[in-house]
Amino acid sequence: MRLLAAMSGGVDSAVAAALAVDAGHDVTGVHLALSPDRQTLRSGARGCCSVEDAHDARRVADELGIPFYVWDLADRFREDVVDDFVAEYAAGRTPNPCLRCNEKIKFTAVLDRARALGFDAVVTGHHARLADGELRRSVDAAKDQSYVLGVLTPEQLAAAMFPLGGMTKDRVREIAAGRGFAVATKADSHDICFIPDGDTRGFLARKLGSRPGPVVDAATGETVGEHEGTYGFTVGQRRGLGVSVGDQQPRYVLGIEPVTRTVTIGTADLAGVGEISTAAATWTAAVPELPFRAQVQLRAHGAAVPCMVTASGGGGLVIRLDEAQRGIAAGQSAVLYAPDPEQGDLVLGQATVETTREREEAVRP
């Protein structure tokens, strides 16, 4: 097969490209330039996509003896990922930019261009498995990235290859070291790639400016503090609220209202969510017959919980959780997995959270 290997400059994509070459495929490497000023992303940054990352990717390609190119997708990335991220926070929602990047950049923009150039598939270093066209969790649970791939369609998955899904991260580094790759000991990227210093609140403040408003305690309705912008908060947040309440009980963000610029906080007993309504769902395989039992994962590194999934209007879903969960915010992705233990690593699809509702008792249909 003629394959395009997306090479970020990290150890995962380097080994994925190497395994594709070892399998006898005709491989070409490509590094995505996603920042308009990559010189600002220096060595040691916790993100990715710096000039140094491009150099690391090129060195691996040279060692593999494969062609290598840099594709400038900075404008597309800004529009589809960065601007979306800022707009979502401005609207009081909590987006996942990695999921959006996979959906809009790596498996739309890159895949479309790859197909136009005659490539059969795109190879990436994601820790997830494809088995008979079905998306499944990685064998390395700590590194599993199936959550941020849950937005992909069957057509996109048919043109994707994830060679690392059947091995642990330690094994990936062993392979890289055995081949003499300099990236074998390179640290994993963390946080958001376009916010390399990790200061999300500062980044949003620079983009959106000061938008002060009240912090209100749900129990009393009293204003207990002020903030400089609702974008500095997310539902479920406990630390960094900047308020002090007399009873000294921990407070969590319960709601964000961007029009009135109100952040509502409350105690743990008010923070539980038992029912979620979503936007239209996307499915990684055939559309399942509703209603159905499933497991749902609500954060990239969260645990999946049992639930019942039913239909709502416009292709959306209602997801009733067996046990109430905290910190579920509009804008997050609810990724659904098969319900039974033997097939629990199978990804069914995903939908974006629109609204949440409290439930006083666990639900077991």
TrEMBL record:
Catalyzes the 2-thiolation of uridine at the wobble position (U34) of tRNA, leading to the formation of s(2)U34. Its EC number is 2.8.1.13. The active site is at 101 (nucleophile), 193 (cysteine persulfide intermediate). Its main location: cytoplasm. Gene3D superfamilies: Adenine nucleotide alpha hydrolases-like domains, HUPs, Translation factors. NCBIfam families: PRK00143.1 (NF001138), trmU (TIGR00420). The keyword Methyltransferase applies. This is tRNA-specific 2-thiouridylase MnmA. Residues 276-353 form the tRNA-specific 2-thiouridylase MnmA-like C-terminal domain. ATP binds at residues 6-13, 32, 125. The keyword Disulfide bond applies. The record marks 126, 332 as: Interaction with tRNA.
